Predict the structure of D-aspartate oxidase, variant 2.
Amino acid sequence: MRLASERGREAYVARAHSIEYWDSDAPRDKIRAISEYLEDFRVIPAHELPSGVEYGISATTVTVNAPKHIEYLFRRLRDQHGVRFVRRRLDSIDAAFASPDTKVVFHCSGIAARTLPGVEDGKCFPTRGQVVLVRAPAVKSNVMRHGRGYETYVIPRPHSNGNAILGGYMQKGVLYAFFFLVVAVVVVLLSLLVSLQSSLCSPFPPFPLDPLLCPPSPHQRHRHTRRRRAPSPSTPPNPTEPCYESANDASTYAQESESIVSRTTGLSRELREGGLEVLAAFAGMRPSREGGARVEREERHGRALVHNYGAGGTGFQAGYGMALDAVAAADDVLRELKGDDGPRSRL
């Protein structure tokens, strides 16, 4: 919230009214926890809930223009903290320790953690999703509905000429037919810790900000240019009936886009009344993990290896907290490096 208030335009983050619905099994413990720090928190009375919804909350949280926010973080680390970014393919996690100067490795390879030698975490799996990018200037609020077997959400992109992301799908994968390019990261992150602690005064909101919100590659993009009015709410196509070939399929499908538009316009009054222009549809694989994310330290070659992966569809929601936990896990090493006049930090 502090980042949105003080550097919102620079960081592409904005305060936003947010609504979250559950058709069933609302996580009451989580809701009690977030009610202690979210502004304007309110349990929505039953008579205000949409048909089929069991429980709902509203609050003031934040919304993120994901691709632009990543660029902001990159520039801040590079320009203000002297972090150097090096892309390199490694044959195993042990190769990240090739330099004797490396004291700590932060491992953030996502789905590749399943096959990366030295890690080979069998709990990792891809979760396929498809989203639709629209121009909808009237949309100012985050809205999410957790249905029985589906997820529906509307997320405005701040400082983007009125764009919004509509979703979505959560299709768990069981096949691993595609090759993962492993980009291993060697990090000394004391500067990142300072950066994160100075930017945030509370956790990110409990509204998942999906890794699929990043720009699609050309082969993933499915463009539309025709202006269309939002359809009236109706019974949407069944979002639990996939039309994809496998959960590793990054193609986009018109049937899924139509389902997303139908469900989201039924969910969001702003979208329904303000109209929308469909710009693109794209799909991708979320880096999921059975049992949740792994943020854990182990010793490798007498040095620290900190794992930080498996956030699934909540990477932008949980990313800051996971980063702080990962840095805390290597606090002793980082404190020692702080007093070292050796090489500058590398990411």
Q: What stands out?
A: Residues 135 and 277 are 5 Å apart (CA to CA). The chain has a mean pLDDT of 81. DSSP finds eight helices and 14 strands in the chain. The radius of gyration is 21 Å.
